[in-house]
């Protein structure tokens, strides 16, 4: 009997092994071209290096020339498929979350928490997104225009007025964080806010990192700061819950209270505490970085482009002359800032704040004749379609008129805020911040760049040389 089983084993095992190897070989042959590089590290260090030298756009373009619009690589600890083109953007932004889910790098997931909108899929994604949208939709944000106006006026008095020179980027980050604390948390000046600002700055330093938690690394410091930020936000959630349940606070007073107010038919909260904390942190990061970077680069643009500056100034002065002294901007005023917003849209095309993003394949996917295996990352670069001459004529030319007719821009080609059903829910929030800021900057100051080096790097957001120091010349108000 033993001889029988031994003989059977030596006959069957090679057949099973042959089938397994053949299937694995067939599976491998269906993978996109490219290399996964060094295990775990892959091309992560190369991408980060190219971003810091502002040559990442060229690097991904060279990948497309070498491998085509679909290729494989490894980024931040995960095997990844890079996709390029309008069809790829449509696939990424319109495919069901049951097939591909939102995903950020492992480092961002660990820092922000696994319940943030970028990590949730299917019904959980829909539930949390639907809870966020009411606070961030235009109808709700109209009431906050005056609040942002007040925040910006206070900011100018504290940091700009009476100064001969300022460095724009850090001041814009201070401004946007103050707006976030006020409108998202209902948190005004005080020790808690100062602590939150300090921890937040430490937290974002390691957002795009290889997720190896070793002492003295940016990733390690970010994780420790993240844990403290989460605890602070949890304490705020508890305070807001008490205000809402016992003191009858308005559900519209800030984002946390708005999320706590979303109830089911039994009057129970449908958004968990972790979901509130992690998504508040996500919006904190997105709102802080994106708007501050865009405002900074708009100031850089207006200093370098006289024609655009004159047109923006004329539009904003026309709005200002119809306002009485001290009167706050309104939603209707923002609607009139059509040219200023077209300038902003063109800037977002040329220098998108977000270089690219990630999704995760929840099952094996066929795309472009290749296999994207279950569990792999999907990566895209925003600028690839923005600077495609077959989509935008003379893409290197700065031309706000491109956005006079939005319908003329092909779908899924302009994606600074995502696209389709996956468009960023904070889009309108950012638009209000940017327009209010530019209104007061151009009507109260003129400025000149103090730095002869006009370059910038990505870390991972665009950062101009020295943070954009400018010489200020105040106007008579």
From TrEMBL:
Top-rank taxon, per record: Eukaryota
Keyword Heme listed: yes
Major place of residence: membrane
PROSITE patterns linked: CYTOCHROME_P450
Cofactor section: heme
Keywords, in A-Z order: Heme, Iron, Membrane, Metal-binding, Monooxygenase, Oxidoreductase, Transmembrane, Transmembrane helix
GO CC annotations on file: membrane
Membrane topology, record value: Single-pass membrane protein
GO biological process, one term: sterol metabolic process
Compartments, as annotated in UniProt: Membrane
InterPro entries xref list: Cyt_P450 (IPR001128), Cyt_P450_CS (IPR017972), Cyt_P450_E_grp-I (IPR002401), Cyt_P450_sf (IPR036396)
Transmembrane segments: 6-21
Binding site residues for heme: 424
Gene Ontology MF term list: heme binding; iron ion binding; monooxygenase activity; oxidoreductase activity, acting on paired donors, with incorporation or reduction of molecular oxygen
Keyword Glycoprotein: no
Family to which the UniProt record says this protein belongs: Belongs to the cytochrome P450 family.
Protein name: Cytochrome P450
Biological source species: Daucus carota subsp. sativus
